[in-house]
Design goal:
Length: about 625
């Protein structure tokens, strides 16, 4: 048989209408909306995107409004800048870490300053020792101070002048002047945004002339992202920060175009892979529109965008999973076209990262670049109906929030009035509910916990002092903290009693009948640091109670098929409580039998969708776990 070439015409795609008819048939009367996935910030994902949702992009990479990146060739010529963040607290050890990392692939340095949050750099000599092994003429250095935002800039300029000599035009990096971020952390009593920018204006003008690659201003989303902001709020508030800087600097004699060219943006990248790509692309779009509306030329509209993997998504429990989280977040940042990327070490939530943590973080990006060749395509996300549509939705949602902030008088006033704190509280409350019910699962913590994992120890960081003021500043929070507190309590119990709290599991029916539910319950108990002691194959309730009496616990969980519950649950509860069970839980929703089961003595029900944290907290109290 002769070979017959196949063409696309041989495989005509079904129409969207045909697909929709098939979907409606499979849904069996359920509304189509059940296939939509809600996102924070009021957005939602559709199950399918078509050319009607997002036409092909008309602007190539490197052309305003820079949705597809600020460089015509993307990062195909050498890749993005691989940055690494450093926060100390040991300055000598950090200096050695800088040298080692730069010798092994790190290209840029990002310094978090001010104790106890970061490096305690008090004078020029200290900064010079810290950067002793850094070739400043070819290594971009970025500062991110959390308190005094002007002094570190002057210190770095002094060190650069001394070590880099007259080659100012080759200098790269940012001085980190970001008074709104400092305002968010410390309050209006310590930070005057207008005065800071007025004092910085001559420096901005000077650097644009002598060292255009050294940006004076920073817009960091860290205070919002670490405190639990949605991606939409993080994006909107970052653009609002930039808008306020443009406005105040123009009053100080710096044109919007000049101010924009002096600005470095730094956004966090969380765990929602595709939405985070869309967020970064939308950031470039919005900033281009803002600068254009302010009178800035197209070359001034290009956002200098640094992306860092999020702190809020990382866990102290099963921290090795953070390697995978950091990989996905770094991948998203690269696909979105970030100019530089920082991957946080997997052990960062535990304290000061060690050499292994920094090495794995660094190699994550090296593999993405050198082995996966992600830099070989100028705009990997371009033309995707899904991402193009989502980019537009992010931009519109963030623009709406930006207009709301502007109506309040700008971001500084929104912070001082408590509006930002209010929004963050609402966001954290909603997210906490999703975490507690496991609608937002956390692998290794609220899902598939490793109860007997070997602890990873790192040097703990000093706690940040409480900031007093009329408005409480945003506090960093990780999504896993609530469930991690349960595991911490289990560890304390283990240290005091030589064993973990235990639950006797009475599994009803055959193995085939109970294994799915009993496995789920064992996982749920492990989330709270409670060991499951499983038993099955009882002759009757009394036989189960006899085994319970030997188990050495006061908690029993009945698990099995729903069909056995109406008759078995009352009998098993009575027998177990007669043998000393203070708490009896039933696996699954009780449905119409709840009143009867509670009358029989059932204390609580464990089922998917319940507030798992509160249920486990209740079990801890009843087991004497503090």
């Amino acid at each position: 048989m002769a070979d017959v070439p196949l063409t696309a015409a041989d495989f005509p795609p079904p129409s969207v209408e045909e697909w929709r008819r098939l979907v409606d048939k499979d849904l069996k009367g359920k509304p189509f909306t059940v296939l939509q996935s809600p996102l924070e910030g009021g957005l939602s994902l559709q199950p399918l995107y078509t050319p009607q949702d997002a036409p092909a992009p008309t602007e190539p990479p490197g052309v305003a409004p820079y949705v597809r990146g600020t460089q015509p060739l993307g990062h195909t010529e050498g890749g993005w800048l691989l940055c690494q963040e450093y926060a100390g607290p040991d300055l000598a050890a950090t200096a050695e870490a800088l040298r080692d990392d730069l010798e092994r692939g790190t290209q840029g340095v990002w310094l978090l300053l001010d104790a106890p949050h970061g490096l305690d750099v008090r004078d020029e000599a200290t900064l010079e020792r810290l950067l002793a092994h850094v070739p400043l003429d070819r290594t971009p250095v970025h500062l991110e101070p959390t308190a005094d935002v002007l002094r570190p800039a002057s210190l770095l300029l002094e060190v650069l002048a001394k070590k880099a000599g007259a080659a100012k035009g080759a200098l790269r990096g940012s001085l980190g002047i970001d008074p709104i971020a400092a305002l968010a952390r410390h309050g209006a009593a310590k930070v005057d945004v207008v005065r800071t920018l007025t004092e910085a204006a001559p420096l901005i003008t000077s650097l644009l002339k002598d060292a255009p690659g050294l940006r004076a201003l920073l817009v960091s989303s860290r205070p919002w992202a670490d405190a639990g902001a949605t991606s939409v709020h993080e994006l909107a508030w970052s653009i609002a920060t930039g808008v306020e800087y443009l406005r105040e600097l123009e009053r100080a004699g710096v044109s919007p175009g000049e101010a924009a060219r002096s600005m470095q943006f730094a956004l966090s990248v969380g765990g929602q892979f595709f939405p985070e790509i869309a967020k970064l692309r939308a950031a470039r779009l919005l900033w281009s529109k803002v600068v254009a509306a302010s009178g800035g030329a197209p070359e001034s509209q290009a956002m200098a965008l640094h992306a860092r993997t999020a702190s809020a998504t990382k866990t102290r429990r099963d921290p090795w999973v953070n390697i995978l989280r950091g990989t996905a977040e770094s991948f998203a940042a690269v696909v979105a076209g970030a100019d530089s990327v920082s991957t946080s070490p997997f052990d960062e939530p535990l304290g000061t990262p060690d050499e292994l943590g920094r090495r794995l973080a660094r190699n994550t990006q090296l593999i993405l670049r050198d082995e996966s060749s992600l830099n070989r395509v100028a705009d990997p996300a371009g033309g995707s109906y899904y991402l193009e549509q989502l980019t537009g939705e992010f931009a519109r949602a963030a623009w709406t929030e930006l207009q709301r902030i502007e109506a309040l008088g700008g971001l500084s006033r929104a912070i001082a009035q408590g509006d930002v704190a209010r929004v963050l509280t609402e966001t954290r409350t909603a997210r906490d509910k999703a975490v507690r019910t496991r609608k937002l699962p956390i692998v290794g913590v609220s899902e598939f916990p490793h109860l007997h994992e070997a602890p990873v120890q790192r040097e703990a960081r000093a706690a940040a002092p409480a900031v007093q003021g009329a408005v409480t500043p945003p506090q960093p929070v990780r999504v896993a903290e609530a469930f991690e507190s349960l595991r911490d309590a289990s560890d304390r119990y283990h240290a005091a009693h030589g064993a973990r709290p235990r639950a006797f599991m009475a599994n009803l029916g055959t193995v085939a009948e109970h294994t799915a539910r009993s496995t789920w319950i064992s996982n749920v108990l492990a989330v709270g640091g409670i060991e499951a002691d499983e038993h099955h194959g009882f002759a009757d309730a009394n036989a189960a109670a006899e085994l319970f009496a030997k188990a050495g616990t006061t908690l029993a969980v009945i698990s099995g098929p729903d069909a056995l519950y109406p008759e078995a649950v009352p009998a098993y509860v009575a027998a177990l409580k007669a043998k000393g069970a203070r708490t009896v839980a039933v696996a699954g929703r009780p449905g119409d039998h709840e009143a009867a089961f509670r009358a029989a003595g059932v204390d609580l029900f464990l089922y998917a969708g319940a507030d798992l944290f509160q249920l486990l907290k209740t079990l801890h109290t009843q087991l004497g776990v503090a």
